[in-house]
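Data deposition worksheet. Section B asks for the primary sequence of the deposited chain exactly as it was used as input, without tags or linkers unless they were present during the calculation. Section C holds the resulting structure in token form. Section D is free text for depositor observations; keep each observation to a single sentence. Incomplete worksheets are returned to the depositor.
Section A, Depositor: J.P.
Section B:
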Amino acid sequence: MDTRMRSLALILLVATLVVFAGCSSQPAATPAAVDSTATSSSAAPEPSVTPSPASPSGIVAIQFGDPGLVASSITLTIIDPGTGSSQVWREFQPVEDAAPADGGIWASMRAPFVARRLFTPNYDRVAAERSVSSDGSQHVGWITKDGEYVDVTDAITPAQSDFSDAVRQVDPQFGTDGMFYFADVNAGEIEKVDPDNLSPVAVQKVEAWDGDQWFDVYPSGTVSVHLPGFYSQHVENIKPGVFGVGRVEDWLDAKTMLTSDDEDVDNLINHPTSQVYTSTAFTKITYKKAEAEGDYVAGGGSCIAVKAILPSTSTRRNWNPIASPDGKQVAFLSSKIGGSAPELFIVSRDGGDPLSVPTDYSFVQAGEADYELQLLAWFP
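Section C:
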């Protein structure tokens, strides 16, 4: 009996030693892993690269690479309104003979809320135009943030005969409904197509169109047609039937607009002083009522309850206002009369003394290259 007990005890002792040895061997492997990591970290470091923010926050500045009617490039830069630091976010370069659409026109005459239609909501595509010299055709499409050109005209145009007129499609832009809009000169109509379903049968007619007109697709979904160089008298926001007239720059909320002093860009450039206003947009009913009762206010946005939000001065020129995401603040550009470089300011929507935002971003002197539009949007 004692012999069996001694044998059993010996077996248990051996098993315990084996288990202990197995457990104690695991920590021994850890230094080897640490040493391996240390050896890897001793290699030369990679160059430091600041990635472009996928979901940016701040004020979006837009710069065109060419003052002509077709931009050679478009650069979007994010400016931190708190620190003034800037970082390039998107760069759209020409692809072969396609380039971002109507750069010079958008830069000189288009308000920020209209110019945003040039891009998809997440700004990963910019509407583009392409002229084909071999047959005189005009194509529309877009350039992606990765530098790819998608020719919508090629994708949606049925096979042409030798006697067909050259295809002419112009004025491309994106709607908030996700559709891609353009004007077909030969058909005499504004059309739209789903960017994810590019085929001849997917094209939808929106309305008739005269070749001498421009058109805008508003956030409400309304398509407004007007003459080049003139703002539509029907500038809708997010709700059909709510609109303003004059040089509407942006919307603080569904019914409150940001407007500037003058519809005429040339006059605005040489204006001795300029003002930014808030005003209540009309509905179609109140517009007629207000006009009949003599409450129609001309100038400064030509709407109801017009309020100047900047201090009165004869020494500065102010322009290009955009609304903050919550609609409580307004960013704008200002320069001293006589040709000083534009500066960035922020003011409350209720008015007051503007706050200067020193920035490392260089704005273009307005009037030198028709770059009226330089502030495009403000992200939360």
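Section D:
The first helix runs from residue 2 to 41.
The chain has a mean pLDDT of 75.
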